[in-house]
Amino acid sequence: MPGVKEKSSGMGDRVRSTVSGASEKISGVGVSERVSGVSEKLKGSVNVSTNTDTLSNKIDLFLDEKSDQLIKDWELATKDDILDIEKRYTQVSNDMGQLESNFDEFRGSTNKKLKKIEERLDKLEKID
User: Fold this and answer.
1) How confident is the model at residue 4 (pLDDT cuts 50, 70, 90)?
2) Contact yes or no for 33/41 (Cβ under 8 A)
3) What one-character DSSP code corresponds to residue 75?
4) E strand or H helix at 87, and its extent?
5) For residue 126, what are the CA distances in angstroms to 74, 119, 120?
6) How would you classify residue 75: left for phi > 0, otherwise alpha for psi between -120 and 50, otherwise beta?
7) pTM for the structure as a whole
8) Percentage of residues in the chain with pLDDT exceeding 90?
9) Quick one: average pLDDT of 18-25?
């Protein structure tokens, strides 16, 4: 079985060279390289934050420029609209109070007139 021994020793050499190659790659990455890699990632996240702020500012500018059209398109209410509605409500409430007062006054006079008409009708019915 000398042929089998040669194949297995060839496999062992390949495994040893693969393992030693991997260990060289692992030991080649030092602590300083890892730290610099982390610092690059942090810089990248800071740049993303800055880009996000820039994008937010651009969105704010766009909304400021297009706010009137957005309000119209989406039929949104503004503070002025709400204040106008509140004023109208106050006016209607005051008018309703006045109307109720007028109604009570006219109801009283109408009831008096109806009572007089009923009394006259009763007199006319008694005459027959």
Assistant:
1) very low
2) no
3) T
4) helix 79-127
5) 72, 11, 10
6) left
7) 0.38
8) 28
9) 51
- If you average pLDDT over residues 64-74, what whole number do you get? 87
Q: Which 8-state DSSP code applies to residue 29?
A: S
**Residue reference for tokens 């209607």:** 92
Task: Dig out the tokens for 125 from the structure.
Answer: 């019915």
pLDDT at residue 115 is higher than 90: yes
User: Could you say which DSSP state residue 1 is in?
Assistant: -
The HSE-up count of residue 83 (CA atoms within 13 Å, CB side) is: 3
CA angle 79, 80, 85 (to 5 degrees): 100
Task: Write the CB contacts of 71 (distance below 8 Å, at least 6 apart in sequence).
Answer: 78
pLDDT at 104 over 60: yes
